[in-house]
Amino acid sequence: MYRLAAFDMDGTLLTPDHRVGSETLAVLKQLVERDMIVTFATGRHYLDAQPIMAQLGLQGYLITGNGTRVYDNRGQQLHATDLPADIAEEVLHTHWRTEASMHVFRDEGWITEFAVPDEMLRAHHLSGFRFQLAELRRLPAFGNSKVCFIAPHEALLALQLQLQAHLGDRADLCFSAYECLEVLPLGCNKGTALDMLSRHLGITMADCMAFGDAMNDKEMLATVGHGVVMGNALPQLKSLLPRLPVIGHCEQQAVAHYLQHWLRSPYLTYSPEL
Predict the structure, then answer these.
(1) Is 107 assigned to a binding site?
(2) Which of 31, 56, 74, 190 is 20 to 30 A (C-alpha) from 165?
């Protein structure tokens, strides 16, 4: 019997309109009643993810910023990792040949140079989380947890090559979504963060189950006792984790349906008909 369930948010727990369905909320509360430790593991900022968890009436653990921050169920920060100052300075001060917009995440919030389109803000309607405008080159080199680039996927693929040429193996690059490329501290991801959290809780990764849909979920899904891939997951994720079960689409609240069956029969293996 697993003791912790970790959930990616966008594309996994949330529907495409960035809401939590009634079936999903009901099954999350069932997990809590069964003494399962519920954890949200997301690329979102703490100031974005925590209000959503609070609105759901859950007091769970949070892994935010794709593993750069970890919080306990009272909101106390357990772990923080930032980009090394030289990496942050290089990313912020280099004139990248790209149409991508740059977004910097620090404990105080989400910082960018130009107003973000309303379409992008819809993802944050539950929390009211908003960007702050600032000249990114004037930001301190310290205290930057991650840098995100937003653009069409083809443009990000070209940018990825530039970043790799500049940074080499000094930082990690990850597609947290099809149109979002992130620069993260080396070795920092949801998997390493969940491992740290599980050890803090006195359990192992084998005691954990996890659900995800994007490349920022890869390490977490690959190292827990039971990883589950969404049907709407990026094809690259499915191909890299071929042995993991693939369930339905987040639009149909597939996580809820899967867990409803699992709660009834926790020792049965996954069936494609679920």
Answers:
(1) no
(2) 190
